[in-house]
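Here is one chain, start to finish.
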Amino acid sequence: MADFPSTETVVKTAGTYARDLLERVLSTFLQSFIAGVVVTQPLDASMWYAAAVGGGGAVLALLKGLVARWRDVTNSASLARGV
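Its structure:
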């Protein structure tokens, strides 16, 4: 008979992964947005372009985190092994 983890363990693991992924996505958005503002100001471009760049970066971070989870079942959204 297979030994499956308890429901509590699965929920905690999913919660840890979700917090990790959310932190990565939000930090990527903020970093991309700030970088976009720094670039758009001297070029006289719209702040909406900066927001779009930030959103694009956040979407890519989300996809990377989901791929990391799919590739290796861990509590992390990192692609590094053993994290």
